[in-house]
Amino acid sequence: MLSELGSNLAIATVLSGTFVVLGSVLSSSWSHYSKVRKAMISTEASPTELFKSSIVRNILLDPWSSVKKRAKAWSFLFRGPQVIQEGYNKANGAPYEVFAPDNRYVLVSSDKHIREIDAAPDSVLSLQAAAKQLIQPKYTMHNFDWFDKRGVDGTPLVRTLRALLTNHIPDILPDIHSATSAIFDQQLDSVPLRDGAKSVPLYPMVKEAVVFSNALAFFGPELAHDKAFLKSATDLIERTLLMAEIIRLVPGCIAHAAGRILTYRYATDKAVHDALLPVVERRLEERAQEKLGHSVAIHKDCIQWIMETSPKTKPWSGDRIVHELMALWFGSVHIVTTTICFAVHDLCLHPEYLEPLRKELQGAQRVGFEKSGKGLLLLDSFIRESARTTPVESMSTRRQALQPFSLSGGWKVDVGEWVCTPVRAMMKDPVYYAEPQEFHGFRFVDPGTLQEFGDGPDFKMPQRGDCAQLTDLDWQFWGTGRMACPGRFYAAAVMKTIIGLFITKYDLQLSEPEKSRWFIWRTSTYPKPSTAVLLRSRLDRIDFDL
Ligand code: HEM
């Protein structure tokens, strides 16, 4: 589906791009012409003076630059990370702008400007509004018309994830571990053994494990074991990506019609909604029964916690809870899957890290991880370095302006435009990281900790003393301040569990290391679903049991 997504988007883009570049040049020329005409009527300026103005010069004398500008905006779809990097290199720490076909983004990287974004009220800069533009929930999430402004009807989701799910991690890790191990065994069973190894496409293998983990954590064991539900819920993610992109790219006047047709033709949101709703309604009923003094089943999952933390004065309806769960599902499965895939690629490319990581996973550190869902410092550093060198996202801290917003120094963000951070470029900047282009899996480990794991190769630590951890908020990976990802502790624990299984169960290498392993769409770098890994079962393995 992801490769289908890539090729469908490419074809749709080339076709609609040609029309829209021409159309938008014509329409922008027309609107500039009208502005000039109005200006001529309303000012004292002579036509000659006005003719010298930049607008007239640009549009009437230099239509070519308008075409170039639009073409560049469309090229953002295929080379977004590069466009952002080029702007970053020129800006020298100052804000700068980039254009996509459907929007203008102002990118900021200094501490001062990032703090200004975080301090702006939700009624001025909104993460929710940016997310709404990104995934078009009205069409992709069963008509979910969420609020632009955060917390209008409470923020039970943030409390659910940040506190309740985080505390619950040690309880669910053993199930996630054993289910993932079984998923891996099953996937390998269907593949022939050649020269002692099996070649398995990595992305579907990881996706199945993440889908199970998140379904268990969010919806509970009943739905996590329902294969038909998991299939629809998995399709929902990739179709949402595809549909939202098409709706964003077609001209505004036909976006609604396109949305309706796509919903009718491709959507799986109804199936997911209809499977979740009775479960949620049953929970609401149980809560009512409990209030009357009846004893009811105990559930520990996000359905239950969102219900319990929703505002007492105006509790959320079943439908509202389901919509929130669907958005949570979409936002979490994909990013965790892709981040794990790149970390596994890095394990294949840097096999010298495997032995110390195995020692850690089979030693005393593991006990701490089982109890708290935290720790495993070598693996933590390896994942952080992998995400630093190959981040899925090139933009973070996205905020859409609901009112005009000005940054200190004069940069303006108009209503509808976004302000965000160039996370990928920042993570490759020598200002923040020594030898930023090089991969050093134990960059963030304290040398004493590394020594405990013995006499392996002499790992280079270009940033001695920097013991930053995966879940720390100093690197834009999880966003900024009060909006920073509330699911990061869960995400880190699941990533360590799944990557830990690859490390302890297999010797691994890329099947075709010379082939490209990713493709770009807008600001995202996606692992190619066809990339396969050669897995050799480690007969002498002591499994990383939980
Ligand atoms: C590698 C995995 C993940 C990454 C890189 C990631 C990254 C992010 C980022 C960059 C933001 C925006 C923060 C901002 O703009 O300031 C965010 C928000 C969010 N994330 Fe994650 N995330 C991940 C996994 C998860 C998971 C597994 C969950 C759920 C368990 C989750 C739930 C959320 C929610 C609900 C928000 C919105 C927070 C709000 O509205 O205040 N994320 N995440």
From TrEMBL:
One cellular component term from this protein's GO annotations in UniProt: membrane
Coiled-coil ranges per UniProt: none
Transmembrane helix in keyword set: yes
Sorted UniProt keywords: Heme, Iron, Membrane, Metal-binding, Monooxygenase, Oxidoreductase, Transmembrane, Transmembrane helix
Residue numbers binding heme: 485
Keyword Transport: no
Cofactor(s) demanded: heme
Cellular location(s): Membrane
SUPFAM superfamilies in the record: Cytochrome P450
Source taxon at top rank: Eukaryota
CDD domains reported in the protein's UniProt record: CYP503A1-like
Gene Ontology MF annotations: heme binding; iron ion binding; monooxygenase activity; oxidoreductase activity, acting on paired donors, with incorporation or reduction of molecular oxygen
A UniProt-annotated Pfam family: p450
Family assignment from sequence similarity: Belongs to the cytochrome P450 family.
Protein name: Cytochrome P450
